[in-house]
Amino acid sequence: MKVSCDREQLLAAFQTVAAVAPTRSPKPILQNVKLEVTEEGATLTATDLEISVRHSVDGVDVQTPGSALLSVSRFGSILRESVDQTLQIESGSSGATIRGERSQFQLPAENPAEFPKVTTFEGDDYYELPARLLRELVRRTAFATDNESSRYALGGIKLEFEDDNVTAIGTDGRRLAKMTGPITCHGQPIDPTQNTIVPTRAMTLIERAVAPNDAEVKLAVRGNEFVVQTERATIAARLLEGRFPDWKKVFPDSSGSQKIDLAVGPTHAAVRQAAIVTSDESRGIDFTFGDGMLVLAGKAAEVGQSRVELPIGYDGDEIVIMLDPKFLMEFLKVLDADKTFAMELKNADSAAVCVTDDGFGYVIMPLARDR
Fold first, then answer.
1. Is the pTM of this model over 0.70?
2. What is the pLDDT of residues 31-67, one digit of tens each?
3. Which of 30, 33, 71, 333 has the fewest Cβ atoms within 10 angstroms?
């Protein structure tokens, strides 16, 4: 194999793919990225046997087709540290040689034929959705999942497909985020009884692989794998097993709730200020709504107290609820600062529900008041 490539374009693709490769593995070959070169172009591949990714690379001039295994750590460092616009890569039985204008590196390499095969996107049965929507589905649910939980299913995002909509749900048992958006169905992409829980790590990688200029994205379930195809990449992930909470029962009935409209930016700033004096032991903040004002009060022994006032358009009966500010800040962080959202509240013991006008819902369980 012999190619000449644009370093920056190769680096961008390599970093996306290398995120899948394990830093430690009983199979050292997995700590490499496979570069495959044909007359049609170049493709990078990586896998940890749970998640795999294939990514095409632009800016590659093919002189001799072939393939090579490139060390994530060593070759990745060469790409980052080099100042050359173009790099020459040549591989053979003795390893790979990387040349710049004034630099040359010789790296040992394993046999590319021994690298595991990865899933490709095939067939006419799939869903299609706007790339921007897919990014939002991940951003607005991944933060609410729990990768450290003993309940395996909580370490993933559940996808539900119904009619012309897809709903993504993430929860750690103390809060739950869900996002719904439109989707187009081609053929029969999924068994309706299929439990589709995709690892959060895989969904985050998918978000990274979706380029800003991508228009549509295809996705499907093939056996126990979730497969996504963007304009340049194909990502496949093994589905998680286990029972996922019935999220529809988590969202409380809104009847009897007070609906309070809040501005994202000012609310986020107020919560951040009030959270300054919280601690791991006393992390709760009292949110008091009433008389046209939201008052946030925090208190922690040996740390101090805080009181922050935010004018709001609510003059109903006073409602006081204690919430974990971290949970609310993570919700506000994924919204545009100039937008608004509504908070639905009943009392101090009922869950707070935050909703937006674009299909995003978020439930936060209140904290006990006896700190």
1. yes
2. 999 999 998 899 999 999 999 999 999 999 999 999 9
3. 333
